[in-house]
Amino acid sequence: MKTALGKLILVLGAALTAGAALAAALASRETDNWSDDELVIMSSIRLSELERAPADPSNAVEQSPAAVHLGQRIFADARFSSNGAVSCASCHQPDKQFQDGLPLGQGVGTGKRRTMPLAGAGHSAFAFWDGRKDSLWSQALGPMEDPLEHGGNRLAYAHLINAHYRSQYEALFGPMPDLRHLPNEGGPLGTPTQRAAWDALKDEDKREVSRVFANIGKAIAAYEKTLGYDQSRLDRYIDGVERQDRTAQQLLTAQEKNGLRLFIGKAQCVTCHNGPLLTDQQFHNTGIAPRIPGQPDPGRGAAIAKLLRDEFNCLGPYSDAKPEQCEELRFLSSDDHALDGAFKVPSLRNVAGRAPYMHAGQVASLHDVVEHYNKAPRAAMGHSELKPLRLSEGEVRDLVAFLGTLTSNVIEEKR
């Protein structure tokens, strides 16, 4: 009798367990029953699909550990500024995803646009919100001479390298030029006194000092190119879905999963925010209102001319590339009015911790960002690519919840 009862209990227990497992499986199926098309898109946006950043032919030292080390030191050195208080790390703060959390960049003055994060930047052909630079090393030079950022000048920077980094510099780039006969300060973008000092230099001296300046950028770029992202909850979830790992599938809540469905479906976010870095690396006009009403920023539309005449571009005299290696620059259209008011699509990785948003910090929260795309207002300049999404308030909240699954650590690749 006891034996039969015991068997019955075991059978009932097994049935209950099987029932619970079936219920869990059905619940999981209801939540995670992704279509084949959805699975293809999901697979394409996970971090494990990210290939190594392409080599930059214009920077011959970018793979050098010595260049990484030198670049990291210069990156954190506030002496490379007019007031001795601003370094690259002042705006690109390591503990804030290599950005600063401010609406506008703050150097020796206040800039006109938001500081962009640096992780994964080596995967993009063009730098800055408007793409006015075509390499990481050229991008690094822009703020150093900008009067609102570092506010410094080429001659001062060359003297700094000579005084404090000469041995490291010469190990990478060869002998420093003789600067003893040159003034302490001078540059083409400095104060009137500094510009006059620069104009008085011989052409050969200008070229040698500019070469040192370019090499500073190349060392900084070597360091910046080591910055990337660790896996997020979304990446681990997608891996789990592919393995049919029910435990991993619980990494996202039902709300976050619905947000993911919207992201790759109805909300059309993946149209521009695609690939493992969740950006197409292109420039789009999305009708973001200017920070100052009545003063729209032309963005990419005005940047192409600057890029083409930049002495530090891929085709310039300080590039290490052969002309045929500069395809992005050689075939760039210089008269594309569709890019008026267009800005670079940023990576969405770690986006939940990167408020405020847009190119000048105009939007305070992710909820407001999604609402902007939902309503699709007209652009103040050019033509917005957006169309109203007609998302419900609940769908907006789900999409915002999903964006929180993209958070991870910024990591440094060791070389």
Automatic annotation (TrEMBL):
Residues 1-23 form the signal peptide. Residues 66-177, 254-407 form the Cytochrome c domain. Heme c 2 binds at residues 269, 272-273. GO terms for cellular component: periplasmic space. One of its GO terms (molecular function) is cytochrome-c peroxidase activity. Binds 2 heme groups. It is found in: Periplasm. Binds 2 heme groups per subunit. The keyword NAD does not apply. Keywords: Heme, Iron, Metal-binding, Oxidoreductase, Periplasm, Signal. Its cofactor is heme. The keyword Metal-binding applies. It comes from Massilia horti. This is C-type cytochrome. Heme c 1 binds at residues 88, 91-92.
